[in-house]
Write a structure and sequence with these properties.
about 325 residues, mainly alpha, 5 strands, globular
Length: about 325
């Protein structure tokens, strides 16, 4: 049986990924390169759907790639590249957009959420069609599986629908991708507002632990994390969301079941629990931060890795687009 192909991408919209990104995506990406043909992308085209500064985007794209490599992605075992360096993404986006109904696109929840903040009249067409470009990203590589969180299920469903629609109308071309969702990957929430997802766009700086935070900063944020007045260390999403979030972080990084951690801290207060959790997070992130900083001191190497990744990605993308153009009735390109 052929090795299954997996594709995923991440935006370079901040100067550091955060703990939620790491546990929800990056850690899975590292694991999947061992068992899948893995293709990973820094999706800079997606990052320009909202106002941005070109110099900041250029810097953050490189920092994002360095963090991915620092976290354990190996260019010998996966393809890592920058989306804008493979122009076939934009070409397929246009073709799929012509197969997508306006009403279908307008039902995408992410556009509703993001446009609600600034007003739909101010939102770009790019933000509106964002899920179609996301579908192009996936279908271009004929990915069998896509690692997604529950909040991305709707966008993957659009990718599946567009693959089936193209295949039905124009001839069998695309693989219909399946979601790859790990039930054990829990949603990591804001340390100061445990009712909200940890997010660069929504959380306060104190509510996020960044991958590149210094150890003292990580410990301070965890020490100040919201808990409750009860004082017992047990998981309860409704009554104790703050403590439950910390237990999930502890469990994910230490590789221990939540029940085992609860038993270990029976009768202990929050102080010792937070101190130990701080040690775990610091120890886990220290080598990632060190490798990332080292890579950023040698940007030529990072850029060379990305260019080689783009070359390998384009070899697949151009083959797909040759089929797509023929199915669409377009003449071959030179």
């Amino acid at each position: 049986m052929a090795t299954r192909r997996v594709f995923s991408g991440i935006q370079p919209t901040a100067d550091s990924f955060h703990l939620g990104n790491y546990l929800g995506a990056l850690k899975q990406w590292v694991d999947l390169q061992e068992t899948r043909q893995a293709i990973y992308c820094v999706v800079d085209l997606h990052a320009i759907t909202v106002p941005y500064e070109p110099d900041a985007l250029r810097r953050r794209t490189r920092v994002a790639a360095a963090q991915l490599l620092g976290a354990g992605l190996d260019p010998e075992r996966c393809i890592l590249f920058v989306q804008s360096q493979v122009p076939e993404h934009a070409e397929l986006n246009w073709i799929l957009g012509c197969l997508t109904g306006f009403g279908e696109a307008s039902r995408m929840t992410q556009f509703k959420d993001k446009s609600a903040k600034g007003g739909a009249d101010q939102a770009s067409v790019g933000l509106f069609t964002y899920p179609i470009l996301q579908a192009a990203d996936i279908l271009l590589y004929k990915a069998d599986e896509v690692p997604v969180g529950e909040d991305q299920r709707q966008h993957l469903e659009l990718s599946r629908n567009l693959a089936q629609r193209f295949n039905h109308r124009l001839g069998p071309t695309f693989v219909v991708p399946e979601p790859y969702i790990l039930a054990s990957v829990a949603k990591i929430t804001d340390l100061q507002d445990p009712a909200s997802k940890m997010s660069k766009s929504a959380s306060s700086p104190q509510g996020i632990i960044d991958l590149l935070d210094e150890p003292a900063v990580i410990r301070r944020k965890l020490n100040r994390a919201v808990t409750d007045a009860e004082g017992s260390i047990r998981a309860d999403d409704v009554a104790k969301p703050g403590v439950t979030n910390l237990l999930r972080i502890y469990s994910a990084l230490a590789g221990k079941p939540v029940a085992e951690i609860e038993a270990a801290y029976a009768g202990e207060g929050y102080g010792k629990f937070k101190k130990d959790l701080g040690d775990i997070v610091v120890d886990h992130f220290a080598p990632i931060r060190e490798r990332t900083h080292k890579l950023l001191q040698d940007t030529d190497t990072v850029d060379a890795i990305l260019l080689e990744g783009a070359r390998r990605a384009r070899a697949i993308a151009t083959q797909t687009m040759t089929e797509v153009r023929d199915r669409c009735g377009f003449p071959p390109v030179a």
